[in-house]
Amino acid sequence: MEARRKLLVLYASQTGNAVDADERLSREAERRGCSATVMSTHDYEARCLASEETVIFVVSTTGQGEPPDSMKAFWLYLRRRHLSHQWLRGVQYAVFGLGDSCYPQFNIFSSEEEPIGRDLPLGKSSTVISIEIKQTSGYGTVEKLDIFLFVAKKLDKRLSDLGAEPVAERGLGNEQHSSGYESVLDPWMCSLWNTLYQKNPKFFPNGPLLSISDKKLIDQPKIEITFYDAVGEHSEYSNTTDLKCFEMEINRARSMPPGKFSHYKNSPDCFLQMIENCLLTRAGCGKDVRHFEFEALSSSIKYEVGDVLEILPGQSPAAIGRFIKRCCLNPESYITVQPREAQIGSCVGSSMVAMKLKTFVELTMDVASASPSRYFFEVMSFFASFEKEKEELQWFASPEGRDDLFKFNQREQRTVLEEQSTKILDLLSKGAAVYVAGSSKNMPSDVLSAFEEIVCNEAGIPMEDAVKWLRELGKAGKYHVEAWS
Ligand SMILES: Cc1cc2nc3c(=O)[nH]c(=O)nc-3n(C[C@H](O)[C@H](O)[C@H](O)COP(=O)(O)O)c2cc1C
């Protein structure tokens, strides 16, 4: 019997959206009975592409029409001149691109005349910074270039020039769409499954429609986290991890006062002065993408065109603490993180070496500024015990609820932490009675515990302030207010 067909799903991402989209594609394929391997273009050997059967690419465009860092080597290989027009004969492919039509409106530099420095997206956060170190007063000729979804368009063309066969029309997801890139991804994915099924029914033995229940898949996480309560049990290894080095680097940078001399040089680490900080995105478009300009103050700074200046983003320790507390975990406990199946390869922050939970959260997760993914709502709906809440989460995770989710989640820039504190506002906006008292002492115990849990613990608002805040809301006539004494 011919073996079931397999899919290779490759992603190239700078800030994480393509990873989400890619994982969604592989999940949906697996729910239809087709096994899929998800990999970053960074971990994939480009020369092996010719021996694949079907490859789905999800790629984003970054910088000024550039491929993500993780795709640069892969793309360089694909562009080699010696590759024949038949090299990918027999390989089927589909490309889904992620981009943002805001970008062509910026001033674009042609590749020969790029300014010194590059855009540096800094993780999946609501503020993105593009950096330029000023050396001369002029920037060279400015050209308009269509950089919207540039990478997906180029990749699609190159794959086809190398003889690969497209199985679906290129999908182009635009973040400016009223419900984000998912509004294009949903129908694109459905038509992809149908086409693959028509080409070879072995892809989906039970047809292209959903055949495995969500529950079964949600029960099988890809990553295993093991907790060790004994502090120090594994600490003898922790100096060797990349994360540990990263942590040390961050601590070193944070503790460096102006004018401090580095340990190994007799000259100061270079100093830059910020001379411009301007918003690149349109006002009100819901995104904060900034252009910073720095001027070198010390002569010690040496760089060449293409060098990268990295600014390490940080998270508030209070937010990390609140997140861990909300998960009912001990921030001081040690964990190891590893993929459950060998084929998955390394996962974000994967480490066989135990590290402190709070270090892991600080270095690998964005708890205070990134909006949770759609899949987060899907998984939460599985665990929700309150029926109404479960239904709402399921609606958000469904294709029909996608627009509502986008408005509630991304447009409002909600975060995992905020989800908790907005619960109380949701309650209020649904017309629930607001109880106001002179002091929290008189609150009925169920109201008091809800307040302690949501307003005080999650949002970090002291109880007395929360009571004052409620009184203000009541005075403004927004909510029905009852008093107790
Ligand atoms: C610094 C930066 C530069 C970007 N440049 C472009 C661009 O030139 N063209 C485009 O279509 N989208 C551009 N985008 C939008 C991204 O492609 C879009 O946000 C995408 O969803 C990011 O996917 P990723 O998280 O997988 O990298 C840019 C985004 C950032 C943060």
TrEMBL record:
Keyword presence, Transmembrane: no
UniProt KW keywords: Flavoprotein, FMN, NADP
Gene Ontology molecular function: flavin adenine dinucleotide binding; FMN binding; oxidoreductase activity
InterPro entries in the cross-refs: CysJ-like_FAD-binding (IPR003097), Flavdoxin-like (IPR001094), Flavodoxin/NO_synth (IPR008254), Flavoprotein-like_sf (IPR029039), FNR_nucleotide-bd (IPR039261), Riboflavin_synthase-like_b-brl (IPR017938)
Cellular component, GO annotation: cytosol
Repeat among keywords: no
PROSITE patterns in the cross-refs: FLAVODOXIN_LIKE
Every Flavodoxin-like domain range: 7-193
Cofactor(s) demanded: FMN
PANTHER family: NADPH-DEPENDENT DIFLAVIN OXIDOREDUCTASE 1, NITRIC OXIDE SYNTHASE-RELATED
Protein name per its UniProtKB record: Flavodoxin-like domain-containing protein
Organism: Escallonia herrerae
